[in-house]
User: Fold this.
Amino acid sequence: MAMSEEGQNTVNIRLLLAVMICALFVSVFTNTMVNVAIPLIREQFGVSEAESGWVITGYALTFAVGITLYGRVTDAAA
Assistant:
């Protein structure tokens, strides 16, 4: 039995949203892991608080750029 085009589109949108939700979860989760690991990173590399702050800034910038891409993809799917 063949699936209708509308049913196929619903499956594709749900699959895309599931992948996007997983990607967003992993992004937030890794950011949290880095925040927890900052004291260890500072100790291991012997950097100051200001220098280790750039690690968090890099993750935040990557996340900010990704948000616009996530929005664009979900708009294209809808």
User: Anything to note?
Assistant: Residues 17-77 form one domain. The chain has one domain: 17-77.
